[in-house]
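Example 3.
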Amino acid sequence: MTERTLEFDRVRFLYDNGSPFELSGLTLFFRPGEITALLGPNGSGKTTLMKLANRRLIPESGQIRYGGRPFTELSRRAISRAIGFVPQSEGIAFDYSVLDYVLMGRAPWLSPLAAPGAEDAAIAAAAIAEVGLSAMSRRSVRKLSGGQVQLVLLARVLVQSTQVLLLDEASSALDLANKRLFLEIIRSLAARGKTIILSTHEPAVAEAVADQIVLMKNGTVQAAGPSAAVFTEANLSAVYDTPIRIFPIEGRQVVLWT
Amino acid sequence: MIKNEYQIQVKKKRRRLSLFFLGLIALAAVAFWTGRYPKLGWTRLADLRADPIAANLFWRLRIPRVATALMSGAMLGAGGFVSQNIFRNPLASPDFLGVSQGAAVGAAIAIVFFSNSAPLRQLTAFCGGSCGLLLSLAIARRIRFGGWVMRLLLSGATVSAFFSGLLTVLKIVADGNNELHAIEFWIMGGYNYVTLNGFAPVVGIAVVSLTMIGLFRWRTNLFSLPEESALSLGASLKGERTLLLWFSVLGISAITSISGVVGWVGLLIPHLARIAFGTDSRFGLSGSMILGALITLGSDTAIRLLSPREIPIGIVTAFFSVIALAVLISSGKVRF
């Protein structure tokens, strides 16, 4: 069981603001080297699941474990070294340079009173190069496009060098070429043994990259398993409440909806 | 190579910080050794030895005043930078949390009801400032919508409005000859009431606050991120963020309790520091302390030397800051 990096064990969660939304009976595990895609309509619980996995939210009942140890036993610092999170977008209040912004990803590895040094700068520079933004490393993040900001956020989680990466619709604003770059980076991370969990509204993206697909609806898991088994017209139509057709073209799955 | 470039940038910023720091030391030296007695200009050692009044002025008035002006600017700069980052709002300053207004009410109470006794005024101003913060926090906790930042800004505005109302009541109650004047002067801010009495603990608190904030100068960056991202990078919102905020408020209320409200410095200086030293709080925050001290000490020294009568420094800093802010906003150097 040691190979299960992140586990959800009968997790139940309710928001305390009176919202009727409930996440229940969540039992999932995420292995090293495996890419898991979360699919489901708006409000199905994908983001809530991400927040639970990031310990932003605490389950009502059930347990979330990392490396066999319950979240409650791990310090915030230990979790920040193990689990990285990329939001869909981020409100940026000040004119940070791309490099300074990415360097913040080194925080879990620096002592509380330290600042990043030459080694950290080298790590950040490599990550910025990996997402193709080297030419912009001194540009203000507030002057970048939505897609470029998503690449900066990806670079930041790369320098955080965590075992688990949570990507919450992190490729939604990317153009076609950058989406391909994004998927290549994800694949190479998985090939290096990282655990990837991504949520997306694009079934084609999920199908193209994921080993495991989790279909969610109304806070429960409708289907979970290897992509090929879960990614069916019947499953998707049921989850999205809309007729969906899948056409295999040149080895890829094209999803059409009416 | 980005890596080398980064090292060069770091060196450049360090050099610039050192340069400004040297400038501050030079200014402080000038401030200590110039005055209007026995005659306008440099104070000579011979004067201090020969003239007991000159010596008294130097030790009992000028040294406390210069030290307070210096710490006041540094503290306002640091507090402003920290609160802008924590509230992720370029317009935030401790004034937004009801601290300044609370302190003003506290001071006015001492002025009206306790015959303006200096140590008591400091105590009540400090209590008033803390009350403002505690009240803002308490109300923010009860608001059930919005993020923490918006809740705190909302409750801060409410508390400030409440204290402004109280202050108006106190001004009506105040005796029109002396008390009203004292309240007005305190609201406009100035270092001319600072004397050897009670100045040491205030400067001590400011030094401790600045040191604590300075230690976390790089991690202050993390709090400018949305909470979720800050948390996932291991920043402790309950621990570190609260600590930074409390030391900002503590230092600023301590200083405000003897100087009155020196407005606008806490808002403007962090923006100037970001332009001069970069947004990275490791340099921006240190720069904000140095620039703040340069502005307040520079203004106060100019007032001392150029004007035979006291001009409240709050007016000078407000004029300077508002004009500078207008220029920076219209030229696009500061964006909200």
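The first strand of chain A starts at residue 6 and ends at 14. Chain A has nine helices and twelve strands.
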